[in-house]
Write a structure and sequence with these properties.
By secondary structure, the protein is α/β, with parallel strands linked by helices. It contains six helices and seven strands, in the order E-H-E-H-E-H-E-H-E-H-E-E-H. The protein folds into two domains: 81 residues, Rossmann fold (3-Layer(aba) Sandwich); 58 residues, no CATH class. Helix content is 42%, strand content 14%.
């Protein structure tokens, strides 16, 4: 499943990319461009703009109007509606910045490209072949996992209630 997200959903676009989903996003896309991309690339339009959602619906474009306010609520909403998985698998993860699939990289190749303490404390690294960004499961990984667990709890509560 591929998505295109409106300019209000930049954080959500990055989350979905980390989760392995192909998400076209730019905060410079006009509404007309978003609709064109959705049709031309067979993407689901994600929006927090009711008017844009209604416009897409009238044109028969697959779209979803996100009502959640927090990132975790939005992720839970997408998990419920589109069966979005709420676990990061680095073998399918995409670069949050440019949407390109990341690849494992040899630790020695990141020497001098990450902080020395990061290099000294972590063994596994991934690199975006397009923008060159380096990723690792550092201290921020705990916060990422907690956010995904909260989204999962929200999802479970909605399914029960």
């Amino acid at each position: 499943m591929k998505f295109v997200a409106d300019g209000m959903l930049g954080k959500l676009a990055r989350w979905l990319r980390m989760l392995g989903y192909d998400v076209a996003y730019s905060n410079n896309y006009a509404d007309g461009q978003l609709l064109e991309i959705a049709v031309a690339e067979d993407r689901v339009l994600l929006t927090h703009d009711l008017e844009l959602y209604q416009h897409a619906a009238v044109k028969g474009i697959c779209a979803h109007y996100l009502q959640g306010e927090t990132g975790e609520q939005k992720l839970a909403e997408l998990a419920r509606r589109f069966s979005v998985k709420l676990q990061i698998d680095m073998s399918t993860s995409r670069c949050p910045k440019c949407n390109t699939p990341v690849s494992p990289t040899v630790r020695s190749k990141v020497a001098g490209r990450v902080e020395k303490s990061t290099f000294d404390n972590y063994e596994q690294f991934w690199e975006c072949p397009k923008c060159g960004q380096i990723y690792w499961q550092g201290a921020h990984w705990t916060r990422i996992q907690k956010s995904l667990q909260l989204a999962e709890r929200i999802l479970q509560e909605k399914e029960i209630g």
